[in-house]
């Protein structure tokens, strides 16, 4: 979030603070699962237990941990089944993601549903808008949902141009309550990033529609951090492309939120086509919302608590609650390799200082902390025991878990986990470790900033 956009957001938020009481995150205490196998959905319905056992034995044969047990515990905590038969492509940084998204949009024949927090009127935003307008003119139905605060710096004329071409544009939860049609709450923002093309291909993760991401970070560039022109450093983020049956619940999350916002009836299109298997990945789709049960949070806590070998988290805005801190510390205490890649360069210093207020406790417990130096970190990913991975829009903070509409996918697959580990290790290459000894000697001015930021962490 840019500083001008942050200022506007904080000003709007102040209007609603007196009306909102503090919410709390749930206690997560997974008990032994009562079932023998997790629930796995397919295009032909839910698999029988024997079929599930055969499937997971085949798919997770090379897992370094008991993914079956973890899948059961996660299902018990969230109530969300796994979905079989998907292809998942990991996308690194803005340029690669935008190329894939625009290529899929250009190939659309029926519909494009786009949900984003930020849609800027800049080079990337204008190019993307031109693609969408052209597809609408070709007869493809395009529906766009963008958050009012995320788009607060985007001129209304930018969206009016798309409306004039026939695109449906819904501004989510307007700052002005008089413009709201559905339930209005200034504090509940739509932070999801999702594009579904023809009901068959979905993109989700952390990347907004903005030239902010136009310069790739050094990720996989083979350049050394100390040989880089600082003016050309980009943003580090992660997205995924999904094909297969898991696209249906992602599409449903868009349609459901559109209805909740009273966006009007969506124009007719084949939003939910039959989806044959496209790959072999098992996915859990977690759509968080302020009225929900914090499923994204629960899944993360369960996975951390059950980790046996490794916990590798990349987090742009890291302001954990005590339960997550205790889970990370507990994992390190039982010998798990716990590493966090956090921002060394941030677009939001207040959040960075609030997160650093937890460094003492984590470092003393044996958690290893690294700060990325060569890019503005915006990714929200984790890979645990090399087989459980999550990618999405949710940060590790109370705002994401309690107040925002967020979207994460969990991929339970050792092969995909290896790709995630590779990504994590390349981030480590361009990060500096924060040691406990070094941290003890940080300036007192930083300590004061951490204390002040910690006081307001709930509202960040």
Write the layout of secondary structure elements.
Elements: H1 3-16, E1 40-42, E2 45-46, H2 49-59, H3 67-78, E3 82-92, H4 93-106, E4 111-116, H5 123-137, E5 141-147, H6 156-164, E6 168-172, E7 194-197, E8 201-205, E9 235-236, E10 238-243, H7 247-260, E11 281-288, H8 295-306, E12 310-315, H9 322-333, E13 337-343, H10 349-356, H11 359-365, E14 368-372, E15 376-377, E16 380-384, E17 388-392, H12 398-403, E18 406-412, H13 414-429, E19 431-434, H14 436-440, H15 444-455
Parallel strand pairs: 1-3, 4-5, 5-6, 9-15, 12-13, 13-14
Antiparallel strand pairs: 1-2, 3-10, 3-11, 4-7, 7-8, 8-10, 11-18, 12-16, 14-19, 16-17, 17-18
Portion in helices: 25-40%
What do we call the CATH topology of the largest domain?
Endonuclease, Chain A
* Total number of strands: 19
Determine the number of helices (DSSP H or I, runs of at least 4 residues).
15
Radius of gyration: 21 Å
Shape category: globular
Main sheet: strands, sense, barrel: 17 strands, mixed
Which regions contain 5 or more consecutive residues with pLDDT less than 50?
14-20, 218-231
Question: Number of domains in the coordinates?
Answer: 2
Level-1 CATH class name of the largest domain: Alpha Beta
Structural class: alpha/beta
Question: What is the averaged pLDDT score?
Answer: 89
Beta-strand content bin: 15-25%
The N- to C-terminal Cα distance equals 12 Å
Superfamily at the CATH H level of the largest domain? Endonuclease Chain A
- The CATH architecture of the largest domain: 2-Layer Sandwich
